[in-house]
Every structure is written in C-alpha cells, then in structure tokens.
Amino acid sequence: MATMATMAAPLRRIGVIGAVLVLVTASAAGAGGGDGPFDWTMDPTSGPAGTVITVTGTCPLPVGENDWDSVGLFLQDPNAEPPESMGEEAVWLDERFEPITAGEEWSFTLTVPADVDPSTLEVGKQCASVDGEGAYDRGETTTWMDFVVTAPATTSTTTPAPETTEPEAPASETPAPAAAAVAAVATPTFTG
What we know:
Number of helices: 1
Number of strands: 9
Strand content: 25-35%
Radius of gyration: 37 Å
Mean pLDDT: 74
Distance between the termini: 132 Å
Helix content: 10-25%
Largest sheet: 6 strands, mixed
Order of helices and strands: HEEEEEEEEE
Shape: rod-shaped
C-alpha cells in the first residue's frame, strides 16, 4: 500500500513540471505579447505610425497533409469594429500572403498605416497551403504578437532670429549734422 510520503514525491515532480511549463509558456507569450511559443519574430515591437515591421520565421516541414507552401501575415486593430456578418472578409491594416519553402527561413514586412493613432495592434502569422489555382486552401492556427504604436517623436527646433544690421551710408553722402549744443543753466542755491 502506498503511503502519503511515497505518493507526495511524484506529485511534487508533476507540480514542478507544471510550473516549468507555465513559466515557459508565460515567457513566450510575454516576449511577444500574444500566444506562444513562436516560430517567428518581429522587429521592431513598437514605433510610430508609418513604421515598417519586419517579420521573420519558418513554417514546419510537411507532416501529413500540412505541406505549407505559403505564409500569411496580418496587421489588425483588435479594437476595431468587426465585420457585420461572418461572410465578410476581415479588414486588415496591412496583410501579405507570400510563397515560402517549408523548413526554410523567410522574412517579409508589414507597414503600420500613417493615420493610426497610438494604440496596441496585433501582428499575426499563419503557415498555409494554396490549391492548384493559387487560392488559400488551409492553414495552421494563427499566432499573434502585439505591436505598440507610439506617439510620433517630437523635435524642437530653434531657429535663430535673422541678424539685422543698419545699412551703412555710402561714402559719397555727407553725414547728418550733429545736434545743436544746449547750454546748461545753473540752478541757484539759497543759504540761510
């Protein structure tokens, strides 16, 4: 019969393994601000409107029917109004659907539109397959990372005041006459 002491050791090991898994998952999610772990990165993770984001990663080698030959990249505002019906396509701030070779590194860019206010956007990546006509066929679950749109950098420039100089009179002109001298009048002093 198992005693509490012999049962506690395996439970402690399970607890430690569970804690390690939670930490690894939390670290991966914290690094990108979304789901984790990731087989892709983005740089930078923040910047003002107009920033070009470089997304780099790999799609796994084929396993079964998951013969990924394309990657979809998406930039979205998670607070934007969703489409009115499920039949409508999502509205992306920027998107790419590019051919790739599974198992090899790829790198593409997304651009934050110039009119986006400071906020947190989401960058998504999905490895996918296209059909014989080049249309989307199927894909893995999209993973997301946060991109923080910052306020534009402010620069203060000080423009020096233009120098002003009195125009010099040409040498041929006579200088203006000096002001007439005024006689000083003495003030009387009384003693008394």
